[in-house]
Amino acid sequence: MGEPAGIGPDVALAAFDHFGGRIGAHPLKLVGDAQIFAPQAQSLIPTAARAAASPGKPDGANAAAVIEAIEIAAKACLAGEAAAMVTAPINKAVLQGAGFGFPGHTEFLAHLTGARRAVMMLASDKLRVVPLTIHMRIADVPKSIDKLAVFETAEIVLTALRREFGILNPRLAVAGLNPHAGEDGVMGDEEALVIAPAIAALKARGFAVTGPLSADTLFHEEARKTYDAALCMYHDQALIPIKTLSFWDGVNVTLGLPIVRTSPDHGTAFDIAGTGKADARSMIAAVKMAADMADARFK
Predict the structure, then answer these.
(1) Domain harbouring 52, CATH code
(2) Fewer C-beta neighbours within 10 Å, C or N terminus of the chain?
(3) What would the pLDDT profile of 5-44 be if each residue is shown by its tens digit?
(4) Phi, psi at residue 22, to the nearest 5°?
(5) Are residues 50 and 69 in the same domain?
(6) E strands within 187-244?
(7) Domain end: 245, 267, 283, which one?
(8) Into how many domains does the chain fold?
(9) Would you say the pTM of this structure is higher than 0.90?
(10) pLDDT tens string 59-94
């Protein structure tokens, strides 16, 4: 369901209708408030908590239903009752104002599933990117990058590319932090001291990894043919290129979980909630990718 005052219910219902309630061998279920998903009541898993949603007007009183919907879907996946979960956008400020103790979906799902490290990937048919650091100030990024974080994140990405995306010999490109990947230390030494040693350790484990590479030449068409995913050092370094290339059909994928989880790559869009103007392409792509990943993982 996501944030009920946003476009989450709109795009969820639109995606459900697009697929006719089924994708491949997977019947689709909606999880959320019974009134919000009343048009598809026969395919609903309702929350006990209710959400009295007014489009465009978020209300902290709905937080319990939003959180419960996520919990229901995650538990169904963990129990083998569902093959994957697709989450509509939430409003972090509303949830945190109601006492929600997590920055967002990714961290909450890691908590619910006991995952050691959850990794956010943004993916489309043109590009897959992973930000090493996500929702933090740019000033805090350099001290948050260390060899273990680079190594573990890359390992999770490469494993997922093989297991959930069916790429037998996945290739990972790793961006540098500084302009021109530090230019031999002239513009910074994180590349030489942190990123390159992590890449060397990955190569020693038999992984196909290149870098650290200059981010400004990493995303043009010819460059994208040389790798299956790119590991970037901070949020905008990863999200600007994919949102430029795939604004309407990019998908947010959480890697490193024992379950499959995807989400549309957009926010709650309160300004158009309930107007019929919401574009469901990213949600449709998220459902399709979740089904493909589940098929690859469980075949």
Answers:
(1) 3.40.718.10
(2) C
(3) 999 999 999 999 999 999 988 999 999 999 999 999 999 9
(4) -155, 140
(5) yes
(6) 208-213, 229-232
(7) 245
(8) 2
(9) yes
(10) 999 999 999 999 999 999 999 999 999 999 999 889
